[in-house]
Sequence to fold (73 residues):
Amino acid sequence: MTEIERVEAIRIENKLDDLRDTTARLAGAEIKVDMLRDRKWILVEELKALGHDFTATCEGVDVILSAPPSMRF
Fold:
C-alpha cells in the first residue's frame, strides 16, 4: 500500500466514523421530535375537547395548517 493509499484509507475511515456518529445522533433527535409531535397532538385534542377556537390565535391557525386531513376543527 502506498502512502497516498494509506492516507486515503484513513480519511475514509474517519469519514465513516463521522457518518456513524451523525446517523446515531440523528436517530436520537428523530425520537425526540416524534415525542414532541405526539405531545402536540395530545394538547390539540385536549384543547378541542375544552372548546378552544383554533381560528382565534396565530398558534391555532398554525395547528390547523399542520393538522392531518382527518382532524376536524
